[in-house]
Design goal:
This protein is of the alpha+beta class and 73 residues long. 55% of the residues lie in helices and 15% in strands.
Length: 73
């Protein structure tokens, strides 16, 4: 197993997710309910974590929707 594969499967806390996507907790959970944001994994009854890979894919998908991403530099 490569170390690159391990990095892509890292689980991250809500605080890191909020920082990376620029959204608050309420908006993140609203988007999850609407099926527009990756759902967390319950690692214990009181702890949820998000897949780093799924968060990166969501960010890339959102950026693809902005005209600036399609602009040629």
């Amino acid at each position: 197993m490569s170390s690159e594969g391990n990095a892509s499967d890292r689980l991250v806390k809500l605080d890191e997710v909020k920082r990376r996507v620029g959204l608050g907790k309420s908006m993140i959970y609203r988007l999850i309910q609407e099926g527009k944001f990756p759902a967390p994994y319950k690692v214990t009854p009181l702890a949820s974590r998000w897949s780093d890979q799924e968060i990166r894919a969501w960010i890339d998908e959102v950026k693809d929707g902005f005209e600036g991403k399609r602009r040629k530099i």
